[in-house]
Specification:
The protein has about 325 residues and is an alpha/beta fold. The protein has two domains: about 1-85, Arc Repressor Mutant, subunit A; about 95-330, Rossmann fold (3-Layer(aba) Sandwich), CATH 3.40.50.150. The protein has helices spanning about 1-10, 15-25, 30, 40-45, 50-65, 80-85, 90-105, 110-115, 120-125, 125-130, 135-160, 175-185, 195-205, 245-260, 280-290, 300-310, and strands spanning about 40, 70, 75, 165-170, 190-195, 215-220, 235, 265-270, 295-300, 310-320, 325-330. Strands 4, 5, 6, 7, 8, 9, 10 and 11 form an eight-stranded mixed sheet that branches. A three-stranded antiparallel sheet has the order 1-3-2. The relative contact order is 0.09. The mean pLDDT is about 95.
Length: about 325
């Protein structure tokens, strides 16, 4: 009984952990940590925070591996800390989860009752409409998504041969980090990101000064309506999970219409296990319910979607952070 109760308490207090990490970033407390040990009082003074509160926060974060506490109760940074400090890959992701997503999750019970998103309940717009109307938040969202994209991109380029690819169409490619990694690994390949108008316009301004500018571009448009037809490889990275089955079927039909026989489609997603075992995909499945109205899927569900669009899944291989690469071909 006691063991079950302890397990239940750890599950119920999970948001306390994530919000403590968020507080460490948002207050600047974690920014103060470095290689030189500093007391909670010093850290609090630099971050302009309450000394006792900072001491309690750091004690908690050190237990999570986000700070190193020595015998004199002074603190230094860890490898996890550096991911959250200015310039760290996960800083914007923590803020996005700690503010926008945390607010949307207050409505999770309503999402379960109705199937609607907590995001709409909280902000009055669905997520992509919301970001389309707020350029600053949209840019932070793109930076947040790039945190995982950079890690997955390295794994993708190490495990997939792009040398024979002429032109990559990255559908819903956000800030273009994944596509840039692909083009750096394949020096004879060109590519474009297809995304919302304001995203594509910003990317083209950024790409104008990029070392890959002669091989890299962005195309504005609605990828549920039309895609460029000049690609021989189409890429959907963490896009399909944002949408329900009907929208996914529509998007894959648009892909098929743009592709020629022999062209390939790469899909990067987390895969739900075929059994009831716990996985990162099951956690993100709930996130999609609350935030976007989409869902994670199993391998067999993606294979079925592809077959419905007239494509054949030729391979499935693991990547990083619980993601998988599904390769499909248009016969």
């Amino acid at each position: 009984m006691a063991q079950a109760a302890e397990r239940l308490l750890s599950l119920m207090t999970g948001t306390w952990i994530s919000q403590s990490v968020y507080a460490g970033v948002r207050t600047g407390v974690l920014d103060v940590l470095g290689e030189t040990p500093r007391s909670a009082a010093e850290i609090a003074k630099t971050a302009v925070c309450d000394e006792q509160a900072v001491s309690r926060l750091l004690r908690h974060l050190s237990g999570l591996g986000l700070a190193e506490r020595n015998a004199e109760d002074a603190y230094t940074a860890t490898s996890l800390t550096r991911l959250l400090q200015p310039g760290g890959n996960f800083r914007d992701l923590v803020v996005f989860y700690g503010e926008d997503c945390y607010s949307a999750w207050a409505h999770v019970a309503n999402s379960v009752r109705t199937g609607g998103t907590g995001w709409l309940q909280e902000f009055g717009q669905e997520q992509f409409e919301y970001f389309g109307a707020d350029a600053l938040r949209a840019r932070r969202f793109d930076r947040a998504m790039a945190a995982c994209a950079q890690i997955v991109a390295r794994e993708l380029c190490n495990s997939y041969d792009f040398s024979g690819v002429s032109h990559v169409v990255d559908i819903g490619g956000g800030n273009g980090e994944l596509l840039k990694s692909v083009l750096e690994a394949a020096p004879r390949t060109t590519g474009c990101v297809v995304d919302r108008d304001h995203v594509a316009e910003g990317l083209n301004r950024e790409f104008a000064d990029h070392s890959l500018k002669s091989r890299l571009g962005a195309v504005p448009g609605d990828f549920f309506e039309r895609l460029p037809e000049d690609g021989d490889l189409y890429l959907l990275s963490r896009v399909l999970h944002d949408w329900d089955d009907i929208r996914c079927e529509r998007l894959l039909d648009v892909c098929r219409a743009a592709m020629s026989p022999g062209d390939k489609l790469l899909i990067i997603e987390r895969l739900l296990p075929e059994d009831d075992s716990l996985s990162l995909a099951s956690w993100w499945d709930m996130q999609m319910l609350v935030v976007t109205g989409g869902r994670e899927r199993s391998r067999s569900e993606y294979v079925s979607l592809l077959e419905g669009a007239g494509m054949r899944c030729t391979s499935v291989r693991p990547l990083a952070l619980g993601t998988f690469l599904l390769e499909a071909v248009l016969p």
